[in-house]
Write a structure and sequence with these properties.
This is Lipase family protein. The protein has about 450 residues and is of the alpha/beta class. The protein has two domains: about 325 residues, Rossmann fold (3-Layer(aba) Sandwich); about 80 residues, 434 Repressor (Amino-terminal Domain), CATH 1.10.260. It has 14 helices and twelve strands. The strands form two sheets. Strands 4-5-6-8-7-9-10-11-12 form a nine-stranded mixed sheet, sandwiched between helices. Strands 1-2-3 form a three-stranded antiparallel sheet, with no helix packed on it. Helix 1 runs antiparallel to helix 10 and helix 4 crosses helix 5. About 55% of the residues are buried. The N terminus is likely disordered.
Length: about 450
């Protein structure tokens, strides 16, 4: 087997072990449901025509069976789950329905005060509605190609629930909810979805969290960018959601750098998700982008728009965007040369605002998929603004796979990350190590 195919096969196995599974098929509309790559999305995920006025208002809810069992976990997640749809506001200021799941722990909270709540922002799942994290909690197994995606944060969810911490998982804008395409790595959409998930959980009938419950955020990779953006936007968007602590692992803070890194990697399909999401957020960019795409590029974007991670690894691993453009120019070079596209990516930059509450930023020094340097730059930028930052550089050897270099720190650092977050939820002060880094960006 050629070396690249061996690496890709290893990456696919690793993604499966972490829960990043996939489907295959096509997308088509039905009367009250959507069929995405052969999987019927329940009617629950179709938003109503009219949404509530208040951000975080629960639109609908229903019991969610937890079918999840991981090799490292004896039995399912220790809690009772509720499927959610709640109202949020997108980056354009328009109302949007977002889905997710609230999990009530079976364990008691042994800390002081009311039971705390953690919003878990999933890492990259894909762009098809069947990839939504809330669906993955119900249907985690890969059986004859019929599966949902499962988040690689599920061990962290288990740890939180076992500590008596309530968890709410957001599916993000357009992932699960069938009215639009997922706006992958749009910082405002993700931040609002995360913060409104906390509001929804606190107002959910039967939930044991209260309006004064401590709130924490946990996310890695795409989720790390989402929690980082949420910490920055909380003071202006959700002043009622006081953050006790935010964990941001491997955050894609600078999409210009991340776009360069993923081109030609195992996760090259994320280029398509990113561009699809940008065009969903700002349709005025579509003529500009499509002018540079050849038939293969347009077909790849359409195909990827319904894929989960596993399919993208197999179908588009190690693809180069030069094969998708009319003149063989890479997407990164096109973005750099196109003011409107460059300005859009600049608007997605995380690190320009001071985050609320203490934050823990972790990044692997060998991570060349979501590059270590740009994640560390986020911590330095925040330190320069006077934020309470705990920065962790995870030192692991380069194993020759960008995907494995990216995900290994999630597993090795996760226990410490959860402990750090539960300490903040218990009222223990954080100890910033900004002193160890240059404060000038």
């Amino acid at each position: 087997m050629p070396a690249r195919r061996r690496i890709l096969a290893t990456a696919v196995v690793a993604a499966a072990c972490l829960g990043a599974q996939a489907l295959s098929g096509t997308t088509a509309a039905a009367a009250d449901t959507v069929v995405s790559r052969g999987v019927t999305i329940p009617a629950f995920y179709t938003p109503p025509a009219t949404l509530p006025a208040a951000d975080g208002a629960v639109i609908r809810s229903e019991p969610l069976p937890l079918a999840l069992s991981l090799p490292s976990i004896d039995g399912p997640l220790p809690g009772r789950a509720t499927r959610l749809m709640y109202k949020s506001t997108d980056a354009g200021g328009q109302p949007v329905a977002v889905t997710g799941a609230y999990i009530e722990p079976t364990a008691d909270w042994r800390g002081a005060g009311p039971r705390p709540l953690v919003v878990v922002a999933p890492g990259t799942m894909g762009q098809g509605d069947q990839c939504a994290a809330s669906l993955g909690l119900e249907h985690p197994l890969l059986l004859n190609g019929q599966t949902m995606s499962v988040g690689y944060e599920d061990v962290a969810v288990y740890r939180l629930l076992s500590s008596g911490v309530a968890v709410v998982v957001s599916d993000y804008v357009g992932l699960g909810a069938t009215d639009r395409l997922h706006t992958y790595v749009n910082r405002v959409d993700e931040a609002h979805a995360v913060l409104d998930a906390a509001r929804a959980a606190r107002s959910l009938s039967g939930a044991s969290v209260a309006p004064d419950s401590p709130v924490g955020l946990f996310g890695y990779s795409q989720g790390g960018g989402a929690t980082a953006a949420a910490a920055e936007l909380q003071p202006s968007y959700a002043p009622d959601v006081t953050l006790s602590g935010t964990y941001s692992g491997a955050p894609p803070a600078d999409l210009t750098e991340v776009t360069k890194a993923i081109d030609g990697s195992e996760l090259a399909g994320a280029l398509g998700w990113s561009l699809n999401g940008f065009l969903q957020s700002d349709p005025s960019l579509r003529p500009i982008a499509e002018a540079h795409l050849n038939a293969a590029g347009k077909a790849a974007l359409a195909d990827l728009s319904t894929m989960c991670v596993g399919d993208a690894l197999l179908g588009y691993g190690f693809s180069h965007s030069t094969k998708w453009t009319t003149d063989g120019t890479s997407l990164s070079d096109i973005i750099a040369a196109t003011p409107a596209l460059r300005a859009f990516l600049d608007e997605q930059r995380i690190g320009l605002l001071k985050p609320a509450g203490p934050v823990r930023v972790a990044t692997g020094v060998s991570d060349n998929l979501v590059p270590h340097a740009q994640a560390r730059r986020l911590a330095v930028d925040w330190c320069h603004k006077g934020a309470d930052v705990t920065y962790k550089a995870v030192v692991l050897p380069d194993v020759g796979s960008a995907l494995l270099n990216h995900f290994a720190p999630l597993l090795t650092d996760q226990g410490d990350a959860v402990s750090w977050l539960t300490d903040r939820l218990s009222g223990k002060p954080a100890t910033s190590n900004c002193w160890s880094m240059p404060v000038q960006p």
